[in-house]
Write a structure and sequence with these properties.
About 45% of the residues lie in helices and about 15% in strands. The protein is α+β, with helices and mostly antiparallel strands and about 210 residues long. Helix 2 packs across helix 7. The longest helix has 25 residues. The mean pLDDT is about 95.
Amino acid sequence: MSLIENLNWRHAVKAFDPNKKVNEENIEKIIEAARLAPTSSGLQQFRVISISNQEVKEKLVKGALNPESMKDCSHVLVFAAWDNYTAERIDKVYDFTTDERGLPRGRFSSYTDMLKKAYLNLPDEVNFAHTSRQTYIALGLALAQAAELKIDTCPAEGFDNKVVDEVLELNKMGLKSVSLMYIGYADDEKDWIKPMKKVRIPRDEFVIDVK
């Protein structure tokens, strides 16, 4: 199937079958799609936390807008962004990049100096807003990969970030949660939205052509 056909197939599942689990091979494919997402300046300013442990999911339930999905899905992916930019984080990424390419460290120092000048004097919340936006690119690719595999998903911002951050101790990693992705297989009897017609904004309202 084409990408468009796969995207037409998917929908935001409202109820998952707790007895059906997604195999790790397919979870890894979904995560890999997220890992390969483009990011601003190639910094990969976020991490993906993959949760299949039922006890951990139960702890996260109290912060979920849809607690049944949190509890019943096979896996939860948490997209968590850097809480801020630092010189050390920028240098670590570019040191790794030059090492992998067989280039001398500092090869891109003029560019990293520009990044530091741009970010390091900004308020923390401004920088976090920027790192957060990078996660949505990865979330979109992960959703598309799951659709290709015919695995059901639901992206979610409806959760208490404080609960997720505390349960997963994200502050110790310099991260803050941004969005969730529930992964599994739909419970066809409880997934009330599945039989409904998929509705999208008409193209002539969605696209503004400038010619």
